[in-house]
Fold these 4 entries.
Entry 1:
Amino acid sequence: MRQRHRGNTLRLGVILGLLATLLFCGCGAWKSIKQWAGYGVADDVDEPKVPPEAVQEEVVIDGKTWVRSKNPYWLTYPDQPEYIYVEKGREFVGLQGHLLRSLRKKLGLEEGKAKGVPEDRVQELVRKEVERLLREQGIGALYAREKGAPVVGRYVAVLPNPEGPPGLQAANRTLAAAVADQLSRQKDIKVAGPEKVKGSLTAAKITGSLKHSQNLKDLGDALGVQAVVLTDVVPPAKGAPGFLVLEVFDTFLGTKADGIAAPVEGSPTSEAIQRFARDNALRAAVALLNVDWFGRVEFVKEGKVYLSLGQNAGLKVGDRLKVVTPGQEVINPETRASLGFTADQPKGELKVVELLGQTGAVAQVVSGGPFKANDKVKAAR
């Protein structure tokens, strides 16, 4: 009994000693205790050097306007920054904002049409519409359905933009490698190896800007990928900071799917590059998975159609595929603005009968044809 009492007294003394240490030494002692106990302490996180209101709301990168936008993954994914820079028109709008906007439009209460309607009346109409949707269609009715095809996987390539400043190409190669590494850790995304990317870039014989629509499609055909991620390191200019940039392009139509930029002070360090890749991998992965799934015909032999995608893009035996000719972009002849793309033209249907490891598959013709190399295939819905 005496030993137990002595043990309790000793424990109480230790606790009081720790409290006294914290009281007299402040938070520094608490940080030391946390480190001693094995809890990570973010010592490497720098204090903001400028107040938030001093951060530029808009910057110009490569001749385009990028805006400071709320990061959709802040507070829901570890180590995410609160704000990121995205190309103007792609700013983050939360679920509530999307819902209010879509319901206002459906109810004829868009801005300019709701004049004279009190705001509380608008909110009441929206609330009733939400209740109706939940009652009739369930919670799925409130979320945008992913436009991707039933095949889940995506096969992508990551490469540094060769048009960047020569003095920053080494940093850009490091950035591309870091982004590729982070994306390769994401479920359902396979990243083409650097040697394959380098060889295909040479074989494609691309001239002009890599971001040109036809060049993106040609590079996609050479690599056999569904999307390309281009990285860039933009130097400081005219008082603006430098930027680390990644852009996601689909290779079916050669269009841009998303873009992310983050300011960096001075020359980008390895730590800053790794942090940017880590912080933005999830958003880039979502953009890649939202790119329409498609594959390519590699060649046709003895009545069988060989495809350049397999398990690396989520393909399975029994999958039905439609062979299509991609739609054409419609350009306003006066303003030169793009109005969108016409619908894909069907050429026939295939059924996957065998997988050739990770990067190939064999299909039999169900209808249509004849088919040739680089014909595009999509999942039949």
Entry 2:
Amino acid sequence: MRETLILLPGWGLDGALLQPLAKALGGDMQVQVSALPRLSSAAAADWLDELDTRLPHDCWLAGWSLGGMLAAALAARRGERCRGLITLVSNACFVASAAWPTAMPAQTY
């Protein structure tokens, strides 16, 4: 059985951006591009709950920008139920904090 890789796009992007990557990786893995949740809530926990319910377990998670941030948080939540994590053009958070000073200053955001 081939392993599954789920690709999550970034903010404001549909999955079309990731289709060439999915096609290129498709020979070795089952690759699926999954849309980000369309929720009225801005709470990260709500987004993660939706993704955790919708996406298969025991798969690789990958994401571009916001998709990478969500993939990382979901991988941390799933622990051993996640095969691995790949982030592309991602950051731990958008806005700088004491824990992550290299992000964008709050005044700029």
Entry 3:
Amino acid sequence: MEMGLEDLGDLAINAIISKLDAKDTVAVSCVSKKLRVSASEESLWLNHCSQDLGLSSPIDPLGKPAPSFKETYQLWRESFGMYPWPLVKRVKRCWDRLKNWLSANFPEAGATLRKGATEVEIEALENILKVKLPLPTRLLYRFCDGQELTEEDVGGTALGSSLGIIGGYCFYDHLVNVCLLPLRQVILETKEITDQLGFSTTSKYVIVAASSTYIGKFFFLNCTTGQLYVGTRNLLSAGEMIPCVPNALISPMHDLNTGQQQDAMLLWLEEHVRRLQNGIIKLRKEGMIRSINLFPEEPPLCSTAVTNGVQYPLLYPGGEEFVYESCTFLSSSQGSIEGGFTFVPGRLADPKGSAFEVEVGRFPLQCPDYIF
């Protein structure tokens, strides 16, 4: 005697449907009234919302409460129906991880994030700048329209804001802190800088991130290839830029029929989040000012030299960490640095023993795969 799915008990049917993804759950609900009831169980859609969207409560894309998890899922699908769903889930996970890290570690920077841009706002940018943003970048802006830095934020330091979510570094009088630009500022900065660089009116570059300090550092997204570039110190004089992400990782950006798109902007932001979560880069505090410091602090991107039992840069057990930052201009993409420090017990004016040298072993300098 053959038995159909509907001949099973409710518990058995629910157990089977719970193994399906959201798309197949909807398909099953179209078979009969009984299966529609089973496929509408709130617990099923709670699971789909949790797995696909990272939601633990029924919240729509605008952040408003929804009547049920099933309706929540439907609202999200409708809101992002023009994009491949796997890409939507991936971009949302990226932003969720970054926002969670900021909330736990750097809430003052998290407070600068703007709500997502609308399709109308994105299309307005494309029309003004005569470009077509890659799908991953469009989605990144749909979830968050960059950062809003107020006058108070910019006044946080003598040279500008320290709240850039990409972060930066400081050596000598060179202070860099990079923030993600909102669409309206993307338009303004792109027009101004591309005019200075003499780009043609058909240029497909847009500026998506820049330093919020008085030291200029600009990140250009090529909307045709999907690569992200950063301007070097020769940007204004020679238009020199270098890629920020390995070219081999970039996939087709404008194909709506696949969920495998990944432009440099998405890859770049995902790698940044990974480094934050893994403690490779951390917050630094100078006086009362906190910022994300892009100098890596964990191997393999960070080297530590140990000589005669003295571990650089610790001066003595239990003491505060000593950080030495420096830079040099290289004419090639590779080089190395080495040297040493002279330590004096006590103070220079009142030494308590003989000075001794600590060697800093040679370590390589080379252009990394990802540049921030």
Entry 4:
Amino acid sequence: MSIYKKTLTYTSGALLFCATALQAQLSITNGDFEAQVVPQPPGYDENVADWFQSQTSSFYEYVYNQPSVGDNNRLMFENTADHPNYVYQSMGTVTAGEVASGSIQFFADAIKRSDRDFGAIEFELFSGTFATPGNGNPLTGLSSLGTYTVPANTFTTDPGFAEAPIITSAFDISSLSAGTEVWLQLTAPIAGGGVNPGIDNISFSVIPEPSTYAFLGGLLAFALVMIRRRK
């Protein structure tokens, strides 16, 4: 095999390896809250499918279905002074490629009812093993990877059910070891009557560090030079 073919073969292999490494193994289940434990007509469902929640009953957090809005189900937090609200789920374990990428960023739609204040919703990412996930069991003994708060001033208008797309800051995962479990928790930290924040359509992206882009760009440029020399 000529030096040109070897170079192109190795470069193509490296590019394919990097592209594969950047694919996410982490995932979010029922991020649009369309799956319900007990599907029902428009109204409330206290059960949040695929998420562990702060309470097993009462409207501390619930799925609200309103087809007239067009997007059906969304997660709403009904705050009370003595029950801070949260839901959480495991996103799975990170791969070496995800760790090398550097960070995770979340996307979602924040929801505000016209007759209630939004308050705030916090995204918090944790890493580690949690042996007792379940309704009413808060995450304990894990390492926090950071918090992002969706502020009340996200909304400048006040229609029936306002939606505002939000993008969190990046959560650094570069210090994790491959195989470490990652947990996402959503919390409504502001308590009190008339506070009713909501969230919907949660997704995320693994964000490569600038050095990763530079490395891939360098490999591609090198391959193009070899191809032109071959011609």
